Amino acid sequence: MGSKIFGFREVVGSLPVYNAGLSEEAVRRRYGLDEVVKLASNECAFGVSPAVVRCLRDVGANAFRYPDPYCTELRAALALEVGVRQEQLLFGNGSEEIIHFLCVAALSPGERVLTLAPSFGLHEIYPRMMGATVEKVSVTAALEFDIDAWERALARPTRMAMFSVPSNPVGCTLSRADCERLVAAAPADTILVIDEAYREFVAAPQRLDLIGLLSAQSRPWVLLRTFSKAYALGGLRIGYAIVSDGDAAMVLDRVRPPFNVNRVAQLAALAALQDRDHLEYVVASTQRERAWLRENLLALDGRLGCGLRIAPSHGNFLLLGVRQPGAALAQRLLHAGVIVKGWTEAGYEDFVRVSVGSRAQNTRFLEAFDAALDGAPA
Ligand SMILES: *Cc1c(COP(=O)(O)O)cnc(C)c1O
């Protein structure tokens, strides 16, 4: 850690490794299990749109051609869908890649970046890669955004504030009034980056209109969205940014590899966008299963009296305070063929995050979780 290797920058050698977790196949092999349930990466448990599957059937014949570097068709459709100008859109090989673009384009060593704790790994790793100083604003004891703390943190010069709403891993969201307070507290030259990877899973009355809210601001802002979660295309890698203005989008475009979004991903995203029925089915199923999982976890806690804390999630996952090291609990679950994410971030080591699965997957998780809690050291 931290030592200089060949000619590489020291800060890069000392960056934390992103925890991408294990695949079902890897766990099956390692533990000699037949059936493994993966609930560790917030993947969609309710299937890919049949329209996507259809549109990919004959994609092979055109594989020799480079993809459209501008995502022209998808850009036009998406601009209409979300109600922004086409030049405000920027596409990435997953929205993760756009976080990378943002940091490369905006951050210099020593600049201050604010993010949330607990945090999505890349909101911290990529700023640190640029030599920026990352400060984290913790959620409250009730696992909600701490607006007072954000106001205090934003009172000092801040190059970028980047966090997810609903947040990953907590799942908390903001009221419109709290969001307005937070935005108003940011210095005029702070780039606000709000990652909306889970926006589709928020029930309509609580879903924020961040485009409307931020468009009223004369500041640089970026909203990040993805096809990886509610649109079920995590394996194809496509996400996008909505940028405050065309000029800012053009700057970001300079650090984008020209063919970063492949043909398959572009086709699939367009088909997924047009299949509204499937999106509704995924969202309704996720909301239903999220509530069911929460109820059953509460019942389990009532029975075991283990003081389980369940964060108020609006995403396709639940963060669970388990009053014991989350990584060890996740390891015990792994032996039972259930993959979840044991949180290891400082201050949040007693949490695990479980993705909302199908009813069968959630049932498997609950059984294994019950047994694994019992196996805890006293
Ligand atoms: C899953 C997730 C993403 C999505 O990343 P992609 O690269 O689009 O798959 C982005 N941000 C957060 C906070 C996430 O949890």
Question: What descriptive keywords fit this protein?
Answer:
single chain; 378 residues; alpha/beta; seven-stranded mixed beta sheet; four-stranded antiparallel beta sheet; 14 helices; 15% strand; binds pyridoxal-5'-phosphate
Overview of this protein structure:
This protein is α/β, with parallel strands linked by helices and 378 residues long. The longest helix has 29 residues, at 276-304. The protein has a 7-stranded mixed beta sheet, sandwiched between helices. The protein has a 4-stranded antiparallel beta sheet with strand order 9-10-13-12. The chain has a two-stranded parallel sheet with strand order 1-11. It has 14 helices and 13 strands. Helix content is 39%, strand content 15%. It binds pyridoxal-5'-phosphate (PLP). The site of pyridoxal-5'-phosphate has 14 residues, from helix 5.
